[in-house]
Amino acid sequence: MAKMTRATARKIFERLAEAAPAPKTELHYKNPYTLVVAVALSAQATDEGVNKATKSLFEVADTPEKMLELGEKKLGDYIKTIGLWRNKAKNVIALSKKLIDDFGGAVPKTREDLETLPGVGRKTANVVMNVAFGEPTIAVDTHIFRVGNRTGLAPGKTPLDVELGLEKIVPADFLLNAHHWLILHGRYICKARKPECWRCPIADLCGFKEKVMSPHAPKKSEPKKTAAKAAKKPAKKKPAAKKKLSGKPKLRPVKKKAAR
Predict the structure, then answer these.
(1) Both 51 and 129 in a single domain?
(2) For a tag site, which of 41, 58, 180, 242 has the least CB within 10 Å?
(3) Packing angle between helix 32-41 and helix 47-60, nearest 10 degrees?
C-alpha cells in the first residue's frame, strides 16, 4: 500500500465532514464524571448496551459522591447487562473514591491525571479530554484501528502507532472531530467483516485493495495462507474399533469320538 499524502488525507476529512457536519459520541452522559463512567463501562461492550444500563444509573448517581453512596453491590445491579460488569463495578467505585480523595470530586483535564484513575487507560483518557474538555485527542478503538490501517491513513501495529500516525497526517482544522468521524465511519460503513465500499464517500481515496463494491458481493473465500496450512495438515486417522471382550473366555465345543 502506497503511503498516503497529506493532500489525500485532507480530501478524506473534507468528505467525512460533509457527510457528518456535527459528529459526536454516541455514549449518553450528563457531565464529565458520567462521561468517564460511561467510557469505562464501554470497554468490550456496545455504546447501545451501555446507554441502556446507564439511563437509570445516572438518574440516581451522577456524581462521585452519589456513586459511593450507591455502593458496589447496587451499582452491579444496574450494569449486569454489560460485559465484565463485576470488575467494572469495582473500578467505578474505586475511581469515584479517588476523584474525591485526590481531585476534590472533579474530573481532571490531563491525560496523566486521568490515567491514575482505576479502569481508565489512554483510550478512555483521550475520549474524556476530547469530548468533555475540547482537546484535539484521538482515542483509538477497534474501529479507528481498523480504518487507520485499512485506508492507509495511519498504518500501525498497535493503537498507539495508529494514534500517533493520525496526529501527524490529519489536518489541524479537522483534528478536533477526527476521532468521531473515524469511529462513525468504521462503525457504519467500513465494517470489519464486510465493508460497505459501494456507499463509502472516500472509496476512491482509500488504499484498501479488496473493496466490496456491491451489497450482493459473495462472501470472500478462505485466505490462501489458511487454506495452505489446512492442506499441509494430515488427515486424522480414525482409531481402529476395539473388539469387545466378555468377562468369561469362550470355550470351544469338544468333539465326541465316534463309537467303534
Answers:
(1) yes
(2) 242
(3) 140
Burial-class residue 83 by CB neighbours within 10 Å (0-12, 13-18, 19+).
Answer: middle
pLDDT of residue 236: 57
Same domain, 80 and 145: no
Q: Catalytic residue at 141?
A: yes
Of the candidates 24, 97, 141, 243, the residue annotated as catalytic is 141
Domain with 122, as residue range(s), is 32-133
Longest Cα–Cα distance in the chain: 121
56 and 120 belong to one structural domain: yes
Q: From the candidates 11, 52, 113, 123, give the one annotated as an active-site residue.
A: 123
**CA atoms of 60 and 87, how far apart (whole Å):** 21
Are 91 and 118 in contact, with CB atoms under 8 Å apart?
yes
Interval 231-243: pLDDT, tens? 455 555 555 555 5
- The number of domains in the chain is 2
